[in-house]
Amino acid sequence: MTAYALGNLRRPARLDDEVLTYMERVQATLDPFGGRFLVHGAPAREVREGTWDAALVVIAFPSLDHARDWYDSEAYQRLIPMRTRHMTGDVLLIDGVAPGYEAAATAAALRAAQAA
Length: 116
Hints:
Elements: E1 3-10, H1 17-30, E2 36-40, E3 55-61, H2 64-72, H3 74-84, E4 88-95, H4 103-115
Antiparallel strand pairs: 1-3, 1-4, 2-3
InterPro entries: Dimeric_a/b-barrel, DUF1330
Domain DUF1330: 3-97
Pfam families: DUF1330
């Protein structure tokens, strides 16, 4: 099942050269694990609810194991400080949903669990 690495990163006023170097090198750390960018820091064009002041990063992986192995890899661990010294934020790894997923089926299961 596809899994994702999500980054909710707050951009500094000016991107440090070290962050730009991180960006130049990160794809090479993703490639061995099948990681590919789906969203990479594009500005939010329309904030429909709440507020948004961060740069969103979404990276897809073939599985959660692939995502974990990438994040824990020596190559990526060496890059992390280049970003974290200059940007704050949150990073998480999360499973996607299976093909054919329906929110209504999940709601039905939750209703049944609450009724029990």
